[in-house]
Known about the structure:
This protein has 136 residues and is an alpha/beta fold. It has six helices and five strands, in the order E-H-E-H-H-E-H-E-H-E-H. It has helices at 15-25, 37-44, 53-61, 79-86, 98-106, 125-135; strands at 3-8, 29-34, 68-71, 90-93, 110-113. A five-stranded parallel β-sheet has the order 3-2-1-4-5, sandwiched between helices. Helix 5 (98-106) links the parallel strand 4 and strand 5 (110-113). It starts with a strand and ends with a helix.
Amino acid sequence: MKRILHGGAFDLLHVGHIRALKRARNLGYLIVNLSSDEQVRNKKGNNRPIIPQEERKEMLESLKCVSEVVCFDTPTLDLREVIMSTNPDILVTNEDNSEYDLICKQYSVEVIKLPRIIPESGLDTTKIISKIKKEV
């Protein structure tokens, strides 16, 4: 069975996340690289994440489609470290990132780019946060 690597913050888990994880799981044994709290803050701002990484990890581990969850406590994502630790066959991403392509090629990891899944409601994490702020 192929080892599949898919990463993200998964801050406020929503149906778009679940569908993306299921899609990745259909390719093989799914390893989720969970962004650390520091990585999320560096990428999305100081008011994020909403949910601490240990709780996000616990939620992901409870999903049937997730085989394993890893989290590296580093300020930024070091894809080389993640690949060396998890030994995936395939990296599933929704980002166009030439650096990912280059690194994966160096480690003989196939890159599959799948379009980002936005729920029918249009509510991704950022929009959920905005909607909550309007209600308060």
